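Incident review: delayed structure delivery

Summary: a single-chain prediction request sat in the queue longer than the usual turnaround. Root cause was a stuck worker, restarted by the on-call engineer. No data loss occurred. The affected request and its eventual output are reproduced below so the record is complete for anyone auditing the incident later.

Affected input:
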Amino acid sequence: MPGTLVAMPGVLPDGETVPVDGALPGTALRGVGARGFGVYLHVPFCASRCGYCDFNTYTAAELGGGVGRESYADTVLAELALAARVLADAPPPRVDTVFVGGGTPTLLPADDLARLLDGIDRTWGLAADAEVTTEANPESVTPESLKTLRAAGYTRISLGMQSAAAGVLAVLDRTHRPGRAVEAAREARDAGFDHVNLDLIYGTPGERPEDFAASLEQVVAAGVDHVSAYALIVEDGTRLAARMRRGELPYPSDDVAADRYLAAEAALDAAGFSWYEVSNWARSGAARCRHNLLYWTGGDWWGLGPGAHSHVGGVRWWNVKHPTTYAQRLAAGHSPGLAREILTPAETHTEDVMLRLRLASGLPLHVLDDAGRAAAARALADGLLDPVAYPQGRAVLTLSGRLLADAVVRDLLP
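Output delivered after worker restart:
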């Protein structure tokens, strides 16, 4: 399917041990930020757990007496200080993008989110045109908190709408009322946010075509300039998966998901949105999420927070997941990194093909080997690649190709 809801994995991968001080190989430090430099900041707190959620998040009850919201900003600033030491011998990076994700980042006081952004600016310096995004649940923001965030330098907000249908929200265990996401989007615009995104999930059991059509209508009416739409996937260990195993709910249908994707493309295209990544649409080039584009085009980023992933100079590492362990490591002066991997050229190539093919800008054909170019020619003949872009040396998915993006990628790779 063209888009699936993704997050930090429930089980972190294996890898080599991260040095206690977090030091990176000298080869990784050369040219830091040459392809862009971003900061991801993970806030692992949620007021309640959604039934489909496999993210690295915790409710207050799940944390018990562990690290809470009150001290979280100080803990993250300690990791930021460690990051500054690790990159001290690298070319000074300029922060092009910041993305605060979760969890529900806006469960932190707006002043704490402002303080964290100021810490990033003081450490490395924000570019004059830096994109600064925070995710938010619609019920976790107010006109006042939005104004505080905007005044602190946040330029973009991504609101988890998921659906306009009360029944769909109930299946997903979402707590906001229908219509609140649209209200929050308008409040963000009124607060001066340059860019506002609404997230949708499609293919939820029980969702009717008219439910999704209503969601799309409300998104367009909200006046946002960016929309993300993801097919629901059912992760092991979630409440939703348990309900399906018990037969309380049917499993998602690939055919239904394809129909929903086509409906999204038709409605958003008619409203002036253009796809720029398989699951993302924007009204203009300026509205595209530059932080995600940095991921998709192989840039560098430092991930702050428990479970956060980082990538610098071909080295990828991931932090310990639990907030208490994360805080304990930093209090001891140690890196919170759990493990890392140094990407081989073959691994980098594979990821480059997988990610760039999902972009409307496409994949340069010259990066493929002979077998990959032969597979691209077959995809062109099957109507999965754009016949205009192909003679210009680029593999760009057609609408049919977007529906089969994963299969096309598999064919292009060795």
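Verification: The radius of gyration is 21 Å.
Action items: add queue-age alerting; document worker restart procedure.
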